[in-house]
Write a structure and sequence with these properties.
Blueprint: E1 9-14, E2 17-22, E3 32-34, H1 40-56, E4 67-75, E5 78-85, H2 92-110, H3 124-134, H4 137-150, E6 174-181, H5 183-195, H6 200-216, E7 220-227, E8 244-251, H7 258-274, H8 280-287, E9 301-306, E10 334-341, E11 344-352, H9 358-377, H10 391-400, H11 412-422, E12 427-431, E13 434-440, H12 441-457, E14 465-469, H13 474-486, E15 489-492, H14 499-509, E16 513-516, E17 530-533, E18 554-559, E19 569-573, H15 574-588, E20 595-598, H16 606-615, E21 620-623, H17 632-639, E22 644-647, H18 649-662, E23 674-678, H19 684-693, E24 698-703, E25 713-716, E26 730-731, E27 736-740, E28 754-758, E29 765-766, H20 770-776, E30 777-780, E31 783-787
Parallel strand pairs: 3-4, 9-10, 12-21, 14-15, 14-16, 16-17, 20-21, 22-23, 23-24
Antiparallel strand pairs: 1-2, 4-5, 6-11, 7-8, 10-11, 12-13, 18-19, 19-29, 24-25, 25-26, 27-28, 28-31, 30-31
Length: 788
């Protein structure tokens, strides 16, 4: 306490300005807490709790000494001592000095000798005065100008994928996890540094920056790094706050090789060291970045390689060992600290528990080690293609989290025909509220067969597209099944679309035949296509059987919205449709007798899920009028008759609101077994409301682009009280889901990338768009994928 003025300096306010006041030396009080009377397990726990409490107890900067301690007696010859310094008067280097000097003083005191420590040439206040006088005027302007140029255009935030959204205000709650570089890897990293004219710090930092870039997708990022700030020999033995934090910008633009990235890191680091004297607080003040209570300014991740004075403690008559207190605070989102440990490097990852789960941080540490292993083997590899996954992770992502391939499933034509033979008199399709206008399985089979023969007579067969412009109702089911049975492929046209859109679809898909209804003829644009009218042709047994389409035959073409320019037609084969329907039957288990409303337009492929799921399972498809919009009140009227329901989130919200408005008069929906939603972003509160509205139903979020044949994944919302999260869920049986990087390599859990969809449901491609098909539908490892 006599030797170092910094630990007996307090801070008072004079005219709202803090002023340091150096207190005269006073005896140091070391309270003794005796726990020796407690049972051994309890006293160890009590000592640890007391130490943590001591570490977290605030200092009064206006009165307290900046160093305090407590001694805990565990047994007659077993003690623990906790020494706590405030950071305003201490840094990591100071902690090493404290241990070293207390050790020397203890040994001398125990032997009755005077202090062996040489007098200090200066005190911390002398350094503070010198720094303030030097860092002003032109010298300060020159330093600030360097940093202003170095950090120009720096993104304000490193957007790492987190387990939870970033809170509006940091809580600084944290935890830590240990990391260890094996001795062999440490030697290889050191050898790489020597070969490339770099330091161990630079190689580790370059690897960390590469990892952060892969996780965030940002080629431009910043990492903070502390420097000791003891550039003069007079300061090396002083306890005080000398450490400064540098902002080291990482440049991964242009997809550099790791060797080139290391060169960039070397230049950036050396330049930063040459301008390290501007205190970080002064830099923030001068650069004035946009401030936020949600994160620290300029950087949110810290990296350090500690080279501190040794803490080996050897005393006569005493055996000492450090006690590791797990971190409970986090100054940054992430803080990676390396230090030498035996024949390898040990590290610690501190993390903000508001953002990250421990498992995420452990996984991240493993990816860093995998990356360093790869660069030591081949530093010429591009940083963006360095492997991150262990073999166990790769197997988990590619195999364990995707079900095994499923056998080829019967097609729609075969499934429906078999169902019609089993339950010919069961109701197959019906218009909502008009059971008399419904069709049994026998009637629907017969009408579809007659339409198929008419189409065949007009030349429709394999790969022949047939336009389909039919209002919602039983005729729509007749048309779809009839086109399928003819061997043709349907192209849906929405009667509400503008004439120009309908003309484009007819011309682009080159349909030779159009199936429609008499009352729609007047809204169709002029065309030279043969028209087949669904006008309630007599129902009877079909005169002959028509063979089912082959799995590789085209089933339908559906045009996407054209958000990227000209609308494009996705081509789907019968085998792909069969695979998706088989997967949904296996995962969802629709039953004979289920009733499901058909609420999607035929121009969306989810329409096929709503129509064909019941028709291939022995249920009833209930078609509702959709013009000018779905009639929510009519749907609510019939909701108590349904056992399965699919609707997009906006329509689901309307249904729930309508049910609540009716109150006690609302229909009983206790018979609803399955509720599906998807197609748009699904709010978590909607899922919670669905759980409450349909308490007996399984609530599922469905996902699948048109290019993956209706659906490829589903997420079952867990029952309360677990939170309802709108996830894409698990791949359906037979489907394959990977998240991959720009090189097509699987990415670790939590890292954003492209969704690659594989399996038998992947569509054929785009009609007449060979280049786009080649870009979006790719072969990898003998499998075909669609890049979503």
């Amino acid at each position: 306490m006599r030797r170092h003025e910094a630990v007996r300096t307090v801070f008072t306010l004079q005219r709202d300005t803090p002023v340091q006041v150096i207190q005269p030396p006073v005896p140091f009080v070391l309270p003794l807490v005796d726990l020796s009377g407690l049972p051994e397990p309890r006293r160890e726990a009590e000592a640890l709790a007391l130490t943590r409490e001591e570490a977290g107890r605030p200092f009064d900067l206006g009165r307290d000494l900046m160093l305090r301690g407590v001694l805990v007696r565990l047994a007659a010859e077993d003690h623990a001592v906790a020494l706590t310094q405030h950071h305003v008067a201490s840094d990591g280097w100071s902690m090493g000095l404290l241990v070293r000097e207390v050790t020397a003083l203890y040994a001398a005191f125990a032997a009755g000798r005077p202090s062996p420590l040489a007098p200090l040439p200066i005190q911390y206040a002398d350094f503070a005065v010198w720094q303030r006088s030097w860092l002003s005027g032109e010298a300060l302007e020159s330093e600030i100008a360097f940093w202003r140029g170095e950090l120009a255009g720096l993104p304000p935030l490193l957007t790492l994928p987190t387990d939870r959204p970033r809170p509006a205000v940091q809580s600084f709650r944290g935890a830590s996890r240990p990391v260890r570089l094996p001795a062999g890897l440490t030697r290889r990293v050191e050898a790489l540094a020597r070969r490339e004219g770099a330091t161990l710090f630079m190689v580790l930092l370059a690897g960390f920056q590469a990892l952060l870039s892969r996780y965030s997708g940002q080629p431009d990022l910043a990492v903070g790094s502390p420097v000791a700030g003891r550039n003069r020999i007079e300061t090396e033995e002083l306890i005080g706050f000398f450490v400064n934090t540098l902002v080291l910008r990482g440049d991964l633009s242009g997809e550099p090789a790791f060797r080139d990235l290391l060169g960039r890191v070397r230049e950036t680091t050396l330049a930063a060291y040459a301008h390290q004297d501007v205190p970080f607080e002064k830099l923030v003040q001068e650069l004035a970045p946009e401030r936020s209570l949600a994160h620290t300014p300029l950087f949110q991740v810290l990296f350090a390689l500690q080279n501190l004075p040794g803490r080996t403690i050897e005393l006569p008559g005493l055996s000492l060992s450090p006690v590791d207190l797990q971190a409970t605070t986090a100054k940054f989102d992430l803080e990676l600290t390396f230090l030498e440990a035996g024949d390898g490097l040990a590290a610690r990852l501190d993390f903000a528990t508001d953002l990250f789960d421990p498992s995420t941080v452990v996984r991240m540490a493993g990816h860093l080690l995998a990356l360093l292993e790869a660069v030591t083997a081949d530093p010429g590899r591009r940083a963006g293609e360095l492997p991150l996954l262990s073999e166990a992770e790769r197997h988990q992502l590619e195999a364990e989290w995707n079900d095994a391939p499923v056998p080829a499933a019967p097609g729609v034509v075969e499934l429906f025909a078999a169902q019609a033979r089993r339950t010919p008199d069961a109701l197959a399709v019906v218009r909502a509220g008009d059971e008399e206008a419904g069709l049994t399985y026998r009637e629907l089979d017969a009408r579809a067969g007659r339409l198929a023969k008419r189409l065949r007579a007009l030349g429709v067969g394999r790969e022949v597209p047939v336009g389909l412009c039919v209002e919602h109702g039983p005729d729509l089911a007749v048309a779809v099944l009839g086109i399928f049975r003819s061997g043709g492929a349907y192209v849906p046209l929405d009667p509400a679309h503008p004439p120009a859109r309908l003309t484009f679809l007819l011309e682009d898909s080159a349909v030779p035949v159009l199936v429609t209804q008499p009352h729609l003829l007047e809204i169709l644009p002029p065309h030279g296509v043969t028209t087949v009218l669904l006008d309630g042709e007599p129902v009877g047994e079909s005169a002959e059987e028509i063979g089912a389409p082959a799995p590789g035959d085209l089933a339908y073409r559906i045009y996407t919205s054209g958000t990227t320019g000209r609308p494009k037609a996705v081509e789907v084969e019968h085998g792909m449709l069969a695979a998706t329907l088989a997967a949904t039957r296996e995962r969802f288990g629709l039953n004979p007798g289920d009733r499901m409303p058909v609420l999607a337009l035929s121009t969306f492929d989810i329409f096929l899920f709503e129509l064909l799921s019941p028709l291939t399972s022995g249920g009833t498809a209930v078609l509702f009028p959709l013009r000018p919009a779905p009639d929510v009140e009519r749907l609510v009227d019939h909701l108590g008759e349904m056992t399965c329901l699919h609707a997009v989130p906006a329509l689901m919200r309307g249904l729930i609101d309508a049910l609540r408005r009716r109150g006690p008069e609302a229909p009983d929906v206790g018979g609803m077994r399955q509720v599906f939603t998807g197609g748009d972003a699904v709010p978590a509160d909607l899922l919670e409301d669905l759980r409450q509205t349909f308490p007996a139903a399984s609530v599922r979020v469905l996902y699948g682009p048109t290019e993956a044949t209706i659906l490829c994944s589903a997420h079952t919302v867990p029952p309360s009280p677990e939170p309802a999260k709108p996830l894409l869920g698990r791949a359906l049986p037979g489907a394959v889901l990977h998240v991959r990087d720009g090189e097509g390599e699987p990415l670790p859990v939590g890292v954003p990338g492209e969704l690659w969809i594989g399996g038998p449901g992947v569509a054929r491609g785009y009609l007449g768009r060979e280049e786009l098909t080649a870009e979006k539908f790719v072969l990898r490892g003998g499998e075909r994928f669609y890049k979503s």
